[in-house]
Batch of 4 targets.
Target 1
Amino acid sequence: MIFINLLTIYHEAYDESVDDITEFEETHFQTNHCIVGYYVAKAWQLNNDIADKSTYFKSNDQDDLICLLKMAEHICKLYEGIGGQTTDHEWERNKAMILAHMGLSDLDFDDLQESTHDQLGL
């Protein structure tokens, strides 16, 4: 079964040595989370723009929705839960570009992160 070691594979994918998670997924699963996201969006009958965006994401894409997604992933510590990592290596590589695109300073983001953690009890 192809997904038997899913968590182990994702721990390796979130390791700092992996630059492109989608390519890593392609190697192991012959698909990636962008393609799965597209089909989920279509099945849920979400707006076509949302479904289409999920198919072409790359880590240096400067689209508002993608930047917002990357901020949310970092704030909720997806790198710990799914990735089994103590450091969000993808965030560290892309933080400056994401914050610049969203017009946020480090302090602005820290305030947003703290406020979100307080509101969600994280």
Target 2
Amino acid sequence: MYPTRRYRGRTFFGPFEPVDPADLAAVEADLGGPLPPGYRALLEAVNGGTAHYTIDIGGEPLGFELFSAAALRREVPRRPPGADLMPIAADGGGSLLFLAPDGRVVAFVHGLPAWTGRSPQDAMHEVAGDIEQYLDRLALDDDTVELLWQDAEDLEPDDEWRIAVETFLDAESQGWRNRF
């Protein structure tokens, strides 16, 4: 079976990586203090996993892929001098999710071309008071359901990825089989 894990009511898809304590120690040394406990717990539970959910930011659903502990170790030292936000996820289109020193989750949303109908302006948004609230606000929208199903529907019925997608969608998106 394709690896999935549940954490705080959300399904994460593998592959998962074991957390290397050296990665966490290096990140915390660069930050000058410990990671917030909730964020550390998330890394330890689903390091390297992907959550196929979106979050509403400024009226737009955005999906972010969380960085693994090893990726954090590479990203944190790249912050501009004096920057206090730690990058924790990216959307693949220039938008980034950050963790503030006080645990708040903040997003930089990259402006898009006018033809998309979305805001052309770059903007910062406070998303949640902490990582737990961020996870609680995640939702599965129909665009994501459709993309996941398109990725799996032509596979053999016994394919591990198809089974994982169907199981996930059955549990998380009531009536998806009738819509897609």
Target 3
Amino acid sequence: TNSRSKEYFTSQFQDEGFRGIEIKDGILINQRRYALELVLKCGLAESKPTSTPLEQNHKLTSVEYYRQFDITDDDELEDMRIYQSLIGRLLYLAMTRPYISFAVQQLSQFMHALKRSHYNATIHVVRYIKRQPGLGLLMSSKKSGELVPFVMLTGLH
């Protein structure tokens, strides 16, 4: 039956480590719980969500660039573990949120030479996820010959 197969797949996902993925109405891969836990873990429960994954026209530069031009307005961060863990969590969320993939890929380039601005940009992505934590991918159980396009428009209210 449908409920038995749903229970089986849900238990398989949980057993295999796909934490936070829920299966409903066909297969809905939804990481709502995982996204909300990430928001809470970053201490952003009371913060305002952002409307874009990265700030518009924000330039992320390397530590080497700052050293070459003797720029000192952005601190280097010594402990990279928190940033690396956060990037790993965002990469995991990108499985069901392809629209954050570009931002996460850009931020992952700085994992070994980290500045405060990189960390702040990563927190900006988490605040963007906070805007709609329940988004996911649906593979409907309804048979249809229709192709349903999806467009994510940002900056519109």
Target 4
Amino acid sequence: MSAKPVPVWVLSSKDETEASKRQAAFAREQCRSVLEAFTHCQSGRLLTTGWVCKEQKNDMMDCMLYYMQPRFRDQFVDQVIEEKKALKEAAKQVSTA
């Protein structure tokens, strides 16, 4: 009795991590200007960063939280699934050749 193959659309923890990394990179790219503003504000500060850069920090957090929403995650999960499908198809063609 052989086990049923796992469907391609079932993501492993490695695949989930990859989708999360891609989403975070996308969010950083979309929020580049507010990230740079916060980085510039906190440059040279230690203790006063929390007070002086509060507005920039809030803008950065709002932007990152917006792009880290589940509705954006779907596109990265779809990318990982498509890559898995392509790899599976390539392996299938190699094994039949």
